[in-house]
Amino acid sequence: MADQSSAAKLPVMSLPQGELLTLNVKDIPVIKDSMGPGIHYQPLFLDPEVGVWVVLAHFAPGAELPVHLHTGAVHAYTLKGSWAYREYPDQPQTEGSYLYEPGASVHKLFVPESNTEETVVLYVVYGANINFTDEGQFHSVLDAVTIQGLTQQLAAAQGLDVNYLTGGAARYAASKEA
């Protein structure tokens, strides 16, 4: 049990925290070909109630995501390799690049085939990606709920034991029994 004495001395309310919520990405297996060939990920934090998902995405050279609309903001930090948007090919994201995408932005991510290594990006996503075909027809929704379901299905199919952090479960503060 964690020592909560620091919080007890403060003149503000705080949530009790019984343990430090921490993971090491080295301990989380990479879920392969999750959203197409050469597109892999490691889930770090999935909160379907709030609609926030944090993943470490791995892209093989030549990988491409469908055109998508973000319903919320996205923070992206490129750890390795390079990638760009079809709409902004002259602004590649390379190792050390931080990118902010506002909600309602639309783009199509691609990884150059000329890359000689895997591209790795840390994404913090609020809301959903609404995915479309190249012809502009609705394709799918990718959000924390979907990522959670994909993680369960693909981990089972690939024989992986995957652990990640998640948000709480909605419930009544007090029993409804009268």
TrEMBL record:
Any Pfam family: Cupin_7
Residue ranges annotated for the ChrR-like cupin domain, each copy included: 35-127
UniProt-recorded name of the protein: 2,4'-dihydroxyacetophenone dioxygenase family protein
GO molecular function per UniProt: dioxygenase activity
Record keywords: Dioxygenase, Oxidoreductase
Domain of life: Bacteria
The keyword Oxidoreductase is annotated on this UniProt entry: yes
Keyword Oxidoreductase: yes
InterPro entries in UniProt: ChrR-like_cupin_dom, RmlC-like_jellyroll, RmlC_Cupin_sf
UniProt lineage: Bacteria, Bacillati, Actinomycetota, Actinomycetes, Kitasatosporales
